[in-house]
Amino acid sequence: MARKLVTGNFAAGHALALAGEANRRARGCAGGAYPITPQTEIIEYLRRFEFSKGRIVPVESEHSAMAVCMGASLGGARTFTASSSNGLAYMAENVFAAGFYRLPIVMVAVNRTLGPPWNIWVDQGDSLALRDAAWLQLYTDSHQDLVDTILLAFRVAEDPRVMLPTMVAMDGFVTSHTQMVVDLPEQEQVDAFLSTGCDVPHRLNVNRPTTVGGLTWPKETEHHRREIQDAMENVPAVLEEAINEFEGVFGRRPDGAIAAEHTEDAETVLVACNTMARTLRGVVAERRTAGTKIGMIKSKLFRPFPRQAFRDALSGVKRVGVLDRNHSPGSGGIFWPEIATSLSDQSDTIVQDYLVGLGGGDVTPEALDEIVEDLLQRECSGDPVWKEVAA
Description:
Distance between the termini: 38 Å
CATH topology of the largest domain: Rossmann fold
Order of helices and strands: EHEHEHEHEHEHEEHHEEHEEHEHEHE
CATH superfamily of the largest domain: Thiamin diphosphate (ThDP)-binding fold, Pyr/PP domains
Shape: globular
Radius of gyration: 21 Å
Structural class: alpha/beta
Number of domains: 2
CATH architecture of the largest domain: 3-Layer(aba) Sandwich
């Protein structure tokens, strides 16, 4: 394993490429590629990589990029791509189709604000706009977390108990274009971790002609959606198995669906994901040193939403603050109602939403400290709080 100083985009491209190469003894790999800031470097990395049995196909749009992925996956290849912002929005029709086809495609989503007005900085509204597609969604807080989570995504997506596409999200520019020292895996390690190869059980076969995506009646559609729900419910257990196997191969243990810190005695807990969680960690440490019974949860798995994990981690907590770098017009933050409904049986728990860092605003320790102060003084939940931060 090589330790290198690399950007998040480089790290993502490396992980995707090695996962694709690991399927060279099966049906190879493929992906559709279309550039968009801030993910273009991922596509450039993949285009340069010399696959033994695979190809990255440049296309004319994000919609076509996902179409290539669907075709390749239906052929049995290990398949992947990357996109961002309005590219994800343009891809949406095929994103839904890939989930309903039960294709284990892995896509890196570099979170960027949807426009207009045009804004190239981080906001999770692009990936979360696709939250009702039949895709797993995983959020990462660092370059190392990104690499590890991409490899976990292939392992979970291709498991026969799941067989669903998976989106791995990182913060645009904050992660994609900054550099950190990362343990980059070697090809032999990825080969070992993904040793079973990609096996799409319903792949197209010229010896068994079949139709994909034909017309169905309401009863069949209902059954189809229930099968997807059952697969989603299998994800937490499959993810935990994959993490155990990852630790055996790579010698380190990635975080699971959620990572609870200092919650054992906490009366107040804040929930965050992606790089906001790293900033929050320092704020929580300072508050605990000062004697405040406070903890935090880093949320990685958004779909399926790990309701039971949140219930267990937040049992008996008096106040929960949810940091949302996203906005659902007419509602508020998107993580907030998911957590609130997870804790619906804890009627005495205050669950307060804070919208922070929308459009790429810098989420500073000072801004988070002000949020903590507001939460500590609350006696009941209120409407979502808009916390404006410096651009």
